[in-house]
Amino acid sequence: MHIKIIAVGKLKEKYLKQGIEEYMKRLKGYAKVDLTEVADEHAPEHLSEAEMAEVKRKEGERILHHLPQDTYVITLEINGKMLSSEKLAATIDELATYGKSKIAFVIGGSLGLSEAVQKRSNMALSFSKMTFPHQLMRLILLEQVYRAFKINRGEPYHK
Question: Which residues make up the binding site for S-adenosyl-L-methionine (predicted)?
Answer without folding.
Answer: 76, 108, 127-132
